[in-house]
Amino acid sequence: MMEKPGLNALMAQFGPLVARICASYERDRDLCRDLSQEVWFAIWRALPAYRAEASLKTFVARIAQFRAISHATHYARNPRGESLSRDLVDHEPSPDSMAIASAVRGSLLAAVQRLPLLYRQPVVLMLEDFSPAEIAALLGLSANVVGVRLNRARGLLRELMEAS
Amino acid sequence: MNVQNENEHEYEEWNTMKANWQSTSVAEFMMTQQLRWGLRLRMFGSWLWLGLEIAGFALISLLGMIQVAMGQVAAGSLYIGLVVVCLGATLWARRASLRGASGSLAELVELSIRRARRGVRMAWANYFMTAASVVWVLVLYLSDIGAPDAAYHDGARVGVAMALFAVYAVAVAIYHAYARRRVRRFTEMRAQLTPRGDE
Question: Would you tell me how many other CB atoms lie within 10 Å of the CB of residue A83?
C-alpha cells in the first residue's frame, strides 16, 4: 500500500518548482502569491486522487501548469487596471523589491515571462528538468509538436535575452 | 558532423538555461508562511461548506421525524419528502465522476470543463430546490395539515421564509453567472491549447 505524502512535505519538496512556474506566468508579486496559493489548494484537493501513475513531481507540475495557464488566460480576457500603490509617499523602492528587480531584470525569467503561452508551457517544463517525452505526455501533445515548440522557443529566448 | 555539433550546442544551451533557471531567487522569495495560513483558511472553508450542506439535510430530516413522533404524520411526511427531493437534485447535479485526471494537461482542461458544467448543474438544482421549498412552505401554510398553532401556519414567519428564499435565489443566480463564465473560459482555453496546423 502506497503512503501518500502530506501537503507540508510536498510544499517543502516542490515549493521552489511551484513558485518558479507561477512566477513565469505572473509578474505581479502579490498576484503571484495568490496564484501559488491557488496551486497548493488545487494540489490539496487533488491529492486523494493521486495514484502514483506518474511521479509526484509530474503530479505537482501538471497542476501548477494548469492553474498558471488558467490564471494567464483569465487575465488575458479581463485585463486588470493599474491600481495605485499604497506607499505613494516613499518614492524609493524597498530593499526587497530592489533585490527582486535586479534578479529578474535581464534574466531568463523575464524572457520566459515574455514568451507566447504556447511556447512558455514546454519551456517551463524543460527548464524544470522534464524530458521532451515527459513534456509531451504532460501536455497531451505529440513528441513532434513539443520538439517544434521547444526549438522555436529556444530561438525566441535567445533573442529576448540578447535584446535585454 | 554539423548536425552533431548543432545537437551538442542545443544540449549545452538548455543545460545552461536549466542551471540559471533553477537557481533563480524568486522561488525562495515566494515561499512564505503567509501562504500556508491562507491555504489553511481555504481548506477550512471547503470542509465548512460540505458540513453545512450535510447539516441542512440532517436538520430537516430530524424535524420531519419529530413531527411524525408527535403524531403529525402528514406534516412530517412533507418535511421528509422535501429532503428526498432536494437530495435527489443534489445527487443529479453531482452525478459525474470528477476524479481521475491523472493524464495530461489537456485532460485536466477537459476535467475543468466538466467541473464548471457541474457548477451550472448545481445552480439549476438549487433553483429547483428553492422552488420546491417555496411550494412546500405554501402548502403547509395554506393547508389544514398539523396543529393550527404550528409555526408553519404563522403568516409572519412564512413572509420571512419567502424573503430568505428570494435572497437565496439571487445568490444562486450570481453563482450561476459565475459558473457559466467558467465554462466559457475553459472552453476558450481548450481551443487555445490545441496544436496548430503548422506544427
Answer: 8
Buried-exposed string B110-141: b where 16+ CB fall within 10 A, e elsewhere = bbbbbbbbbbbbbbebbbbbbebbeebbeebb
Q: Residue B126 corresponds to which amino acid?
A: N
pLDDT in tens, B138-186: 988 998 887 788 888 889 999 999 999 999 999 999 999 998 998 888 8
- Among the partner-chain residues A22, A103, A137, the one whose CB lies closest to the CB of B30 is A22
Distance CA A154, CA A156 (A): 5
Going by C-alpha positions, the residue among A54, A123, B36, B39 that lies closest to residue A63 is: A54
**What's the whole-model pTM score?**
0.66
Q: Which residues of B touch A127 (CB under 8 A)?
A: 17-18, 21-22
> Which residue, among A16, A14, A36, has the nearest Cα to A25 in the 3D structure?
A36
Amino acid letter, residue B124:
W
Q: How far is residue B47 from each of residues A34, A120, B92, B178, measured CA to CA in Å?
A: 20, 35, 21, 21
The DSSP string of chain A is -PPPPPHHHHHHHHHHHHHHHHHHH--SHHHHHHHHHHHHHHHHHHGGG--SSS-HHHHHHHHHHHHHHHHHHHHHHSPPPPPPPS--S--SPPHHHHHHHHHHTTSHHHHHHHS-HHHHHHHHHHHTT--HHHHHHHHT--HHHHHHHHHHHHHHHHHHHHH-
Beta carbons within 10 angstroms of residue A19's beta carbon: 25
ipTM over 0.85: no
The residue type at A106: G
Q: Are B116 and B182 in contact (CB under 8 A)?
A: yes
Specify whether the CB–CB gap between A112 and A65 falls below 8 A: no
Q: B-chain residues within 8 Å CB-CB of A41?
A: 39, 42-43
> A134 and A125 in contact (C-beta within 8 Å)?
yes
